[in-house]
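Folding Task

Wanted — backbone structure
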Amino acid sequence: MLSDQDAGSENKARVRELPLQVFTAPGTQEIKTEKKNKYTELVTKLDSISPLKTLIRGYSLTEKDGKIIKRATQIDKGDKITIKFSDGEKRQ
């Protein structure tokens, strides 16, 4: 009969010999793939609404005193404004 210590060592040796797949629950790979696909979908959505992507599409961002200008009535002739483009900005 094996002592408790010998039995423990023998069990550890058997565990090391088992393939890793034995420890992977059924469906784990499918869940992992599903999560990866969801992550990719969310990153794509975030990327599509990125302010930088909007600028790359040809839009610009106009600011006055660090605040975004949304209406023509927010600026007057002679106001100092900054126009931001995808490749830089201009101050007027």
Summary: Strands lie at 61-64, 67-68, 82-85, 88-91. The chain has a mean pLDDT of 82. The two ends are 91 Å apart (CA to CA).
